[in-house]
Amino acid sequence: MAHTINAEMVASVHSVEVSPGDSVDAGGLLVVLESMKMEIPVLAEHAGLVEEIFVEVGTVVQEGDALVSLR
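Below the sequence we write its predicted structure tokens.
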């Protein structure tokens, strides 16, 4: 079952640290967002495989937008 990680705020995507098929541990870095000149790490809530990435560097996301899905 896939679990989607969503943006918690309006921000731009500074970097994407994973690729589809990557294995991640709980707490692993997935994406770095940038808002008001601050970098905000987005971490995996649980271990899994990266199924899909919905954003790319430079994308502006809104609160609730899907970033990455894990299975």
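The chain has one domain: 3-70.
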